[in-house]
What we know:
Largest interface: A-B, 24 and 20 residues
Distance between the termini of chain B: 59 Å
CATH topology of the largest domain in chain A: Aldehyde Oxidoreductase, domain 4
Radius of gyration of chain A: 27 Å
Largest sheet of chain B: 5 strands, antiparallel
Structural class of chain B: alpha+beta
Oligomer: heterodimer
Bound molecules: flavin-adenine dinucleotide
Helix content of chain B: 25-40%
Amino acid sequence: MSILGTRVLRAAEDPRFLTGGDRYIDNLPLDGAVHAEYVMSPVAHARITGIDTSAARAMPGVLAVITAADIDLAPQTTSNPRVPESMGRPLLATDTVRFVGELVAAVVAETQSQAIDAAEAVVVDYDPLPAVADALVALTESAPRLFPETESNLALFAGFRTSDDDDFFAGCDVVVRERLVNQRMAVTPMEARAGAMWWDDAGRLHAWSCTQGAHGTRDGLAKAFGLEPEQVRVVAPDVGGGFGGKMGTYPEEVLLGELARRVGRPVRWAESRTQCQLGLYHGRAQVHDVELGGTRDGRLIAYRIRIVQDAGAYPSGGVFLPYLTRLMASGVYELERVDAQIEVVVTNTTPVDAYRGAGRPEATAAIERMVERFAVEAGVDPAEVRRKSFISPDAFPYTTKTKATYDSGNYIGALELALSGAGYVQLRDEQARRRAAGDDGRLLGIGVSSYVEITNGDGSGEFGSIELTDDGGAIVRTGTSPHGQGHHTAFAMIASEITGIPFSRIEVRHGDTDDVPRGGGTGGSRSLQAGGTAVYRASEDFVRAALDLAADMLEANPDDVVLDTAAGAFHVQGTPAIARTWTDLAAAHGGLRAERDTERSAGTFPFGTHVAVVEVDTETGSVRVLRHIACDDAGTIINPVLFDGQVHGGVAAGISQALFEHFVYDVDGNPLTTNLADYCVPAASELPSFERIAMETPTPLNPLGAKGIGEAGTIGATPAVQNAVIDALAHLGVRHIDMPCTPERVWQAVQAARR
Amino acid sequence: MTVLAPTDLDGALAALAERPDATVLAGGTDLMVELNFGHRRAGVFVSLRRVRELREWSRVGDELTIGATVTYTGLERGQIATLVPALAQAARTVGSPQIRNAGTIGGNLATASPAGDTLPVLSALDAVVVCASASAGRREVSVHDFLVGPKRSALAAGELVVAVRVPVLSGPQEFLKVGTRNAMVISIAGVALVTDAARGGLRCALGSVGPTALRAADAESFAATAVEWPSRRATPEAAIEFGRLTAGAARPIDDHRATAHYRRHAVEVCARRAFERVTLR
Ligand SMILES: Cc1cc2nc3c(=O)[nH]c(=O)nc-3n(C[C@H](O)[C@H](O)[C@H](O)COP(=O)(O)OP(=O)(O)OC[C@H]3O[C@@H](n4cnc5c(N)ncnc54)[C@H](O)[C@@H]3O)c2cc1C
């Protein structure tokens, strides 16, 4: 029986994680290590007129204090050549600070407490400049300018149109328009950032990094220090969550290498939650001006979206987010005309980068919100609008107007499964009953969201290898870099499936650039399809090589030898009694090994439909999610336990964006949500038990048939919940409420509609 | 950092008298946050954890004396919960199980945060705070005088909250709170309502909508006549009016958690609902 598709528990990783783990950077013993602490700007925008480090230097235990004047390291810039060079981020602020949390100085001391105390003793004179924390305001003529060298705060503009028709909305009986705010989110991993670095006598840099990709960090550090990649070793031990925010190489990390070089000792750093809220790049932060048109009977025709991306103070990964939003703009619909325009703008806030979904949730949120907005205006059931406008299941591969080629899909299938699983018709009846009863206290809302997204969007290949151990087990190596997802379990299952080596005897290694030669890390929901495929292919090669060796041992023709994966043994076809096991093979041919780099291939397009059922208290505005039904199709499921886990975490994050989380700045750029009392991540008590409906449409693009599932839950859930809240209030005249739909906002919307 | 750990009340008071620079440490759920944020410096601490007298509670007649280091878990379970239900309801809304196991009623009083969840209940109950110091001995302060302003109490230097005394009333009680999520949240508005069937009235206090817990005096006098005592019958219109009057007592501010407007509205809704729950149609 195949192990694939079965509910194998996460035996390799969970016991350690659930008991606190023992390999998080801040827990790891490191002989002779000293501690770094960064001085962060407390103001959003100011000229630095002086930095006095003398008091800090004189503090007990202090080994070094550095400012921009002491270092010669290049600023960090984006890879997008259209963004002005002058918008690069200096590792330590030179003459200007541009957001609260920007690094101004770094301190190294014998202990962490000494370092923190000394950091407080660094005196920085700030001459305040007017600040701008709102992207739309930053685009106005009179807005304070972040970079005097540039003409405006616009970092990048990109237009795109599939139609030059003068009349973009020709043929549309109904056109709806709305401004949607996809609010700024703090990534909030359980483990805040940490690191440790030291240089060996040969001039090689050793780094422990809490990263989503050890090789990416290695390359980032090598580039920063002008080294060859081989001169840097990066190890990512246990990493407590990343959600996209831990993909890049942060200034804090590069500086750690610089500090270690200066003091000639290992330097360790672990930030506080508040520092993490300010320093770890934020997510989302887009404003959309959206127009959607279609026929009166509910067929969608034309869609226009203006995407304003708040990049924060220094354009970083935030620059690529709106491109993904644009790529996925038209979602699951067959449209005649699409127009999507991108403006990336700098503001006096923490830079913005990838966060669970990275540009795709924004696309889905915009169009799925507008579909329901359109449905209300046209007087057609939103499910019906979707049925009428979906790309048909026989149209795949399908190239959209924004030039995405969807590999496979069955959008109508997922919609119908989700609707029947939810009992959509009965829910609408119950909603009507409550409305008729005038029961305004507990209105029922039903929200739908049908999404398609792209995983392993850059199509990158991945490294995988498998090696026979002396006792007949195997070591699998992968270039992906799990931080909670369960790759140990998934990849051991794949290797076991192909080789017949028992699951429990396969060890999965990752995240050490000396142990794994290459890798793209874990992000963009790429790991299973890219990394899993590499392990799959390497395992096939491994078995082929083993067949030759086994044939030798069996004194048979290799063509006649077969592998019985159930027994984990080789025998001549027809004579299973005379067999050679993997253990026999290991004894005779130690070190058997195969590795594979999979080719680049196009991204895959998971899809699905989520239905959220909420109850809204119109008096207080509070929203309770009663049910959340998710039909996510990410191709073949390798392990339903892992799949569920990704969906559950994703849906929780999605509900959270719809209802709770929002990183807030005041008009002067002061952050107001720098701790978890004010930044509202939900607890279990805010979430219902999720209902998952299985659907598997394999992708033809890889042998596993698998697409990514890491971000789909978030992408599908957010608009479903937001739509449900607004749906509950539709009969009162409420047409839109921006996220997060907090009690106060909901209540205000009700008040405004009643006025 | 020095932590002194006296085992009885006299020892604790003596320690505080000897070390005027010392800070009292109970559950640490407020204090440790202040230390972590650097709002307070590490120095000398007098831990109350081992002081037996402060952990106990007792009932004499119709009065309950609750020791300062009784935790939220202690308040929400067992007999206290049936004797003073609103206090138990408030305790249940605090933090998480870990916070409720550590945090104490004395700490909530001494912190005197406008958002302290037991404070409106204690205010509605007209509680008496028992304080003591080595030099001045024991004194009893009405909770209304004890709570001076935001994070300001009537505690003198070297003085401890020893206990708080509350009446055992007959009749239902309610505590309702609005926050941005169900758990681990600083409340946006809170309403405590206790009925006193014997004396024919009810008392209502508000949290998070003023510098300290506020009493809704107008609403209380309205209820004295609008409710039929002791049957506790009241009309739906009375509930609406009660909510309106209670909201009138709120003195909320705008901040990033909520606007003053919404806070006042939340008080109105909570007060009305609490009123409906403690009265009969
Ligand atoms: C995550 C989290 C969630 C929270 N949620 C809530 C909530 O929902 N509602 C709420 O009201 N509060 C909440 N709090 C705040 C806190 O738990 C309470 O205020 C608690 O009652 C404090 O009690 P403690 O014993 O921990 O006090 P400590 O932290 O030990 O002390 C607090 C202050 O009071 C002084 N003090 C303590 N005891 C005495 C005494 N007997 N005599 C004199 N001075 C004393 C201390 O010196 C200190 O200044 C939360 C805190 C955290 C960290």
